[in-house]
Structure formats: C-alpha cells, structure tokens
Known about the structure:
This protein is of the alpha/beta class. Helix content is 19%, strand content 35%.
Amino acid sequence: MTALRRDSEYDCILVGGGLQSGLIALAIHHHCPDASVLMIESGSKLGGNHTWSFHPGDVPDSSRSWIAPLIQYCWRDYGIRLQEFDRTVELEYASITSERFSDEIESLFLRRSSTKRLRQRAAEVVMAGHRDPLHYGSPTSSAELPEISSPDPGWRLLKETRVVEVNNNSVVTECGRSFAGKNVIDCRGPARTSTYAETGYQKFFGFELELHDDWPEKSPIVMDKLDDQSDGFRFMYTLPFERRRVLVEDTRFSDTPILSRDDCLQVVSDYVHNKGIKVSRIVREESGVLPMPFGNSLRPPLSCALTGGYAGGWFHAATGYS
C-alpha cells in the first residue's frame, strides 16, 4: 500500500472544477486575498461543456466586478413564446461559456501561483544580500517579504486528479496523496447525489450551429413551446451568439431521465428548417439531465465536508439550474 504524502494546509480546498467551485475561488480571491486555495478537478478541463445563462440584475453589486469577466455574451432582452402568448422581457440576459470560464479560472490560479513564486524568489535574493527585484534600486529587508519556509501553500490547481476520499479537513487523491485544508468544500455534480424518493427532470440536448443564413432573432428565446408535448413539457431554447452562429436546445421537463441525442437532433433540425435556415455544420454539442427533487426528497451525500454544487442542493427548485 502506498504511504500517504501530506502537503501544507490550505485555507480552502475545492473538490471539483465546475461552476460553483470556480465562483467560490473568485469570491475568495476578491474578499479574502490572503487565503490559500487548492482546486482539484478530475477532468482535463474546468467547467466541462456547458453554457450557463442568467440575469445580470440578479447579481449583487458587491459581486459584479468579479463576475463580469466570465460573461461572454449579453443581450438587452429575451423572448418567451407559448403559442398563444408571445412576450419580450426587457431584462438583460447573459451567458457564460465553459471556454471563457475555464480560461478565467485557470488564469486566476496561474496569476496567484506565479505571484507567490516570484515573492519567494525575491525573498531568496534578499537573504542572499541582493536588492529586491520587485523594487529596482531600493534596498529591502527580508522582514518585508514572506519567509521561504512559510507554511502558506498559495494557490494551486490540479487537473486530471481524481479524489477518492473527502473529510472535513482533508482530501485524498487516487494516487494516495493527501491534502489538508481548514475548509473543504465538495462541489462535484449531481452524479454524487443519492437516489431521490420523488423527482422530475429538466433535460436538454443542445447544438451550437454555424449557419448559411442569418438567424432571424437577435435576442435569446428562452422558451418556445413545441406542438409535440410528448415526454413532458417541451420547448426550444435559442441563444444567438452571432448572426450565423446559434445554440439551439431541445428542452424538456419530464418524469424520466431518458434522453436520445438522435431524437433531439431531429427536433432541432426540423425547428431550424421551418425557419428557412440552412445549417453549415454542428460546431459543438451539450446535454444535461438535471434531477428536480420534490419537497424534502433531496438527500445530499453524507460527508463531514461542506457540500457545494448540485449535490449540496444549490440549484433552483423550479428550473433545476445550479
């Protein structure tokens, strides 16, 4: 059996590299800049393959400055179409893509870890009797800089690293490495949740399309009800990223988690064709099956650590969005 290797203690360990984990990291950077953070993600990329949309007006003023860099698209309004009802809602609507999210969070960890290494190097130079390379021309004492042996582990991002054990003050990875943390937050997704006593599902399959023709709407249509209402309440969801680039999703509120890509692709193809639009190619696909537990049927997994993300119940009860 491989002996556990234990690293320095972090102020916060974030298990999982999804949306809530990234938002927590940004909040810590903004509100507690001296805190040390470790994020551990099992995949090769943060944020998976998603498009997260929200109303910017719902974001508190105190958080807007550090949420804004994540936003890739923003519209002045959006539409709702329920066949006999057609309404334009004059509220801003914004989207965060996984690509933008991943770039921003990885950049944050890179900046924070690089700053720590630079200051450690500066301390080494000072201790060797040289001037501080951060302040050219001005003598600096070692008391003004952190000691090289400081227990502060700084900021660190580990990808392609699977966590097999989570406790209230430590995590253990698959390779047997142990990390200590004053606060451990498990932000892994809905797959970790226990079986629900009663639940429905919000499920969708979306296709980002490159078009031959201009998309007819300049604003998102967040709900365009379909004639076919089999498999629950069904509607189309569209985000026009550019004149000839749009995300079209077949979305359903259903009693079952079953979702067929081919069926959804056919529905999306028919929807686009009926608008007289020709598709050049499918740029990207994304899908999701989100449990929507009724009442008190949600049972987060038993753990001594804090539970964030979907598994912790941090989602909207009426939509399933986390």
